[in-house]
Amino acid sequence: MLAASPGVLLAVEGLTVRFRREEESFHAVEGLDLTVRRGETVCLVGESGCGKTVTALAVMGLLPRPGAEIVSGSIRFDGIELAGKGPYPAGVRGRRLAMIFQEPLTSLNPVFSIGAQIAEGLSFHWGLSARQARERSLALIAEVGLPRPAERLSDYPHRLSGGERQRVMIAIALACDPELLIADEPTTALDVTVQAQILRLLAELKDRRALAMLYITHDLGVVSRIAARVAVMYAGEVVETGPAGEILRRPLHPYTSALLEALPGRGKRGRRLTAVPGAVPHPAARPRGCAFHPRCPLAQPACRRERPALIPVPGARAVRCPVTAPPGGGEGAGG
């Protein structure tokens, strides 16, 4: 079992999430396995529509209801099962497990001050008095790099820039000293300079607080800066996983290769970047066999008939592609 492995903080096994809409029913995530160890940063990578955010919401117990449900699989956080049918376990969400959402302007409440929004979790989880919560909030605002913390506490979200609002979201997420932080595309709406600042801040906070982090992104360029391991998602399932450096240097799945080819970078000056043809299929219209085969230049007849399994590969890697898996796959792979 993944949850029994040394140092594993989050273990997701066989997770399948179903959405129901009127007469339609489909799986947005299917059979997903994922682990995050203590103090480790894992990047969950893929295009929009691949199921990354749904995975994060399932872990946090925030799937939209009614309409979405976990139909099978396990989500264990430090040995605590989170995927049960009952209430979400007390003392986990917001306390030991926290999340930074993608768009801070819609995540922050426009009618409450920044100080009130940080203090809310401190009062609820730690039972701090108003004075204690204010002191803690001031320290958090300073820690995430906002100038003039005392003034910021009385500000409202509309008075802050996008980068400042995201720093407030980080402060709220870190308020109760979580052990695992989920960051869902926290820099997507920011310009390149501010994006670099937020990434640097997250890396510093992770090291300072010994945090584990699950970082969700569509940008493989971010991976090299922050991740120890990567899980690449496509059409609701993990298609490749392994150490970040190895995947960036030697991708195995055609989808991972296509994402890397689409990145600008050194050695590509003067070359036309290659876009991945087509689009991620809607979960209700997922093709038979390998979900990537309509877009894959290496597709074989078998790819259209059979859904491939995730094949273990030496070097703590795995790939969902029998065409590109190296000989000897299945031996010596690990978490």
Summarize the structure in words.
It is a single chain. The protein is 30% helix and 24% strand. It has helices at 52-60, 104-107, 114-126, 130-143, 149-153, 162-174, 192-209, 220-226, 244-249, 254-261, 301-305; strands spanning 8-21, 24-37, 41-45, 68-77, 80-81, 97-100, 180-184, 212-217, 229-234, 237-243, 311-313, 317-319. The strands form 2 sheets. Strands 6-7-8-3-9-10-12-11 form an 8-stranded mixed sheet, sandwiched between helices. Strands 2-1-4-5 form a 4-stranded antiparallel sheet, with helices on one face. The radius of gyration is 21 Å and the shape is globular. Residues 331-335 have low confidence and may be disordered.
Strand content: 15-25%
| Number of beta-strand segments | 12
The biggest sheet, with number of strands, parallel, antiparallel or mixed sense and barrel status, is:
8 strands, mixed
C-alpha end-to-end distance: 10 Å
Which descriptor suits the 3D outline? globular
Spans with pLDDT under 50 lasting ≥5 residues? 331-335
Q: What helical percentage do the residues reach?
A: 25-40%
Tally of contiguous helical segments: 11
Class from secondary-structure proportions: alpha/beta
Q: Give the averaged pLDDT, no decimals.
A: 90
String of helices and strands: EEEHEEEHHHHHEHEHEEHHHEE
Give the strand line-up of the largest sheet. Answer: 6-7-8-3-9-10-12-11
Rg, rounded, reads 21 Å
What characteristics describe this protein?
globular, disordered C terminus, 335 residues, 4-stranded antiparallel beta sheet, 8-stranded mixed beta sheet, alpha/beta, 11 helices, single chain
